[in-house]
DNA sequence: CCCCTGACGACGC
DNA sequence: AGCGTCGCCAGGG
């Protein structure tokens, strides 16, 4: 075995960037939400938050990434249109306990999950 | 190889 | 507080 050190998690290493994004997104606790910028900042604030959202769209079906738990810094469900249905994202969030009003997360500030702080 | 778009964010007015 | 613009990085045509 040895396995040396390659700690590969089933193909999550598409590029450090995408892989990290998927990992963090998968770590988001149920009932909590985070923002694209927060993930970007956690990775090193080197890339724009746009890359994070982009990574979500590039998520293969193999990866179960709760992209619905990721919203923009306003708590707005900007990516809801990418779930196949414009209401799918909201439905999933509400199902997990996250109230969504007007395509926006209620108490977003309170439900915000910061990877750099919680994950630390 | 050049141009444009894209699930964002911060700043300026 | 709402709207507009620029910046960032990468992929697609």
Question: What is the secondary structure topology, with strand pairs?
Answer:
Layout: H1 16-27, E1 34-35, H2 36-43, H3 49-57, E2 70-71, H4 88-95, E3 100-101, E4 104-105, H5 108-111, H6 115-119
Parallel strand pairs: 1-2
Antiparallel strand pairs: 3-4
Helix pairs in contact: 2-3
The chain binds a DNA duplex (13 and 13 nucleotides) through residues 17, 35-37, 40, 46-58, 67, 70-74, 77-82.
Describe this structure in words.
It contains six helices and four strands, in the order H-E-H-H-E-H-E-E-H-H. It is mainly α. The strands form two sheets. A two-stranded parallel ribbon has the order 1-2. It has a two-stranded antiparallel ribbon with strand order 3-4. The chain is globular, with a radius of gyration of 15 Å. It binds a DNA duplex (13 and 13 nucleotides) through helix 2, helix 3 and strand 2.
Round the Cα radius of gyration to an integer and report it: 15 Å
- Helix amount: 25-40%
**Could you state the order of secondary-structure elements as H and E?**
HEHHEHEEHH
Instruction: Kindly report the CATH topology.
Output: Arc Repressor Mutant, subunit A
Residue ranges: pLDDT <50 for 5 or more in a row?
Answer: none
Strand content: 5-15%
Largest sheet: 2 strands, parallel
Specify the CATH architecture.
Answer: Orthogonal Bundle
Please state the structural category.
mainly alpha
Q: CATH homologous superfamily - what is it?
A: Winged helix-like DNA-binding domain superfamily/Winged helix DNA-binding domain
First-last Cα distance: 31 Å
Order of strands, widest sheet: 1-2
Number of strands: 4
Q: Say what oligomer this is.
A: single chain
Q: Residue-averaged pLDDT, rounded?
A: 86
Number of helices: 6
Which CATH top level class fits?
A: Mainly Alpha
What is the overall shape?
globular
